[in-house]
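Good morning C.,

I know you're traveling, so I'll keep this short. The sequence:
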Amino acid sequence: MNGFAQFFILLVFSAFLCRAACAQGVVEPPLPWKVKLTTGETLKGTISKWDFTAVDGSFGRAPWANFKPDDANRLCRKLMDWRQASQYIQLARMLFKLERADKLAEAALNDAIRRDRLCVPEIDALRAEVTERRRKVVEDRRIAAEKEFQSKAIGVNSPARTDADPRVKPWSVATDAQRAEALADMKADADRWLKQVNLRFSMAEGKYWVLYCDFPIGQCKDLARRMDEMYETVASMFALPVGLNIFHGKAVVIVSATEDHYRALEMAAFNSMPPPGAIGLCHMVGPKVVVSAFQSPDENRFMCTLVHEASHGFMHRYGSPSRLPSWADEGYAEYVAAQSFPNSTTKADRKPQGLKWLRDPNNNLLSVLHMSYEDGSWPGPDAIGYAIGYLTVDFLAQTKGKIFAEWVKDVKAGIPWEEALQRRFGWSAAQLARAVTERYWASE
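The tokens, ready to paste straight into the viewer:
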């Protein structure tokens, strides 16, 4: 073998060793570099090693996450083997982890395809991986926020009675997959009920509700929007994190065009017959919330009823299934209906009735506070419980809002309402009755 052949073999072998060293992340000779990092510091020195997680050199170790996207892209392209499609895929993977670097990552993937079209399946897998990773980040944040809310909703400082009554056990926090399954289950229930009564309804899905309406789709979508606005109004009253959906999947709202359709649906779905005059009901079955109503000719009364019933569903899902006493449960729903939209009929209907009743010396508000669903005493003659419940909740919310909110949390934690009243307000039920009566006796 002559000298030239030996030199050529040595040259090829040296090139092979050099490529192997580069593949291992060794930079030879070390590369001088200066750049300002996202932390505000200036990285200055020579780079001697690198991989797709960081660069090492005289300055120590600098993760790519500390680089601005343009700088990371430019330096990595200088260090990597520009001939290999796999290197561009690795570059894209790194860039996808940086903020506002998606365009640079996609450009790297296009460069990979230009070098080897057979890498497309690997690129598709990377995009799916990135999408799932980002979805999981959003899910983890939502779950953390919901868990924090749930802990506060049943009173952080409340001596919870969860061991005594299963109804006060906090609602579990669902994963995205569980929420999707719950939503599909809710929709399947509604579809089954509508088939039973042989009715075809328009369907519109909002952020928090799925509406089925026995009227044109445009009206159904508008109602879904208004229901979402109502939810967010109520959520702000209870300081929920913005956008937090506390329902099981979503709540279902079914609005019939006629009273006959409404009653037929109630019988088919819940084996119940609404009492005379009722144009809407809220059904709470385990974690599920379903509101059923019919569109009465009086638009304001219809919306007031719909908000009232939806509020029951909201409170059912607030913290735990533990229920407020009847006067507060109904009074709160009336209060929300009064606060949620300007044309609510609550103030015009409930308030005058309640004031007239309170100012009669033969009546005692304490008797209404002790009415209950369970013993059949609610809502009393002429449904006076609704009016007195509204005035009582309005008084507490307007004059002692923060304390009232803590009282709600105590009851949701399983504390008997009168015990919680004494704990938060320092009042007995009789003292609450006197305070409300004095507030409205001569005023307004």
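Safe travels,
E.
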